[in-house]
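Quick one - inputs below.
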Amino acid sequence: MSNETVPAATIARIPNYLRVLSRLADQGKITVSSAELAQAAGVQSALLRRDLSWFGTFGTRGVGYDVTTLRASLGSHVGAAQSWPLVLIGAGNLGTALARQFSQPPFELAALLDVDPRIIGTKRAGITVQCQTTLSEVVATTGASIGVIATPPDTAQGTCDALVASGVVSILNFAPTLLQVPQGVLLRTVDLVQELQILAFHESHRAL
Amino acid sequence: MSNETVPAATIARIPNYLRVLSRLADQGKITVSSAELAQAAGVQSALLRRDLSWFGTFGTRGVGYDVTTLRASLGSHVGAAQSWPLVLIGAGNLGTALARQFSQPPFELAALLDVDPRIIGTKRAGITVQCQTTLSEVVATTGASIGVIATPPDTAQGTCDALVASGVVSILNFAPTLLQVPQGVLLRTVDLVQELQILAFHESHRAL
DNA sequence: GCGTGTGAACACCTTCACAGCA
DNA sequence: TGCTGTGAAGGTGTTCACACGC
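Output:
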């Protein structure tokens, strides 16, 4: 079972489960049933069990799951076992906000870059902003494989190309643009306005 | 066809199509085929046609779609015909970044609120930050039906409750917390770290 | 001939329901 | 008995492939 490809939908839910498990662990809970965990994560219990089954069998029938064990196992499958150095480009408000959120394990902010000479050298979210021209050097020395784009949309493609050129193979894009990347580079775009538009759609169709 | 419920997956793609259509319109393009449009939006042409078919038939066989007509029709179905006043709570870096992005049509930033006395009264993203205690007053006077949460996670639920109490029925949450809302309130949570975790998962499974 | 619109096939994802083990 | 793990069923979303109209 654990050798097939894990569904994308499952992967998207794992971080949720991990967050809930951490909260439960903080509360001192030892074991948890699929029903409880699912409720806290906002999904059906059968779906939770199905999701977990892709990674192995963790539970004890009649009892439930050991909170810390499950968190550790799940985390290791999701890459929480290793540390992920990141390069973040764009130190505006969005970049600064992301820098703060992306400084928690297993992620590690290797560098925060920008092109604006007025903010290069200043500190944002506890890290000194470096000049974007040092990108490939930074990638080489830190071994960062993930790049985050938080630049204005018109410079996003150029930034993306620079990231690819310097050897980054996974890119998370927050600029509202469709980016082109070569084969083999993993790109994920988060469009903040799009989320609002989805909400507006539902809102305007309430009266059905 | 247009009377059934539109799939959530389709709705999530419409903003993409609209963005591409706008770009094409700016470039002076008059008509576009489903193949071109789909390519630019990063989907299969058949999927694009299927998506459009939920809203009506817009194309001309053998020719394609009229760019401006399609954009207008699609936009009207998605709520772009009316204006959406928003209330944004949390004027930190994230809130400020969102405020700027959420000030474009059809959205209108009715108010930017915070609890921190040091930033209340200052300007962020072109709007003066108001005290959060004025929330229900602001909602009442502006008629805002959408609220955006950009506060720290520990105050997010309280903020959410306040939004609901003041009459907001759609909430977009950027705090990494699972929020509870009463029946009838539409909640959408965007977890920025989660996106990064999904990327890390794929990255750590490259060697399959 | 070309490209849309769509029935039908397919793939993916979720839920049901229950066997099996603590 | 209680809860997990999972075959089987059901539902949702995507792709195929082609009839139809320009």
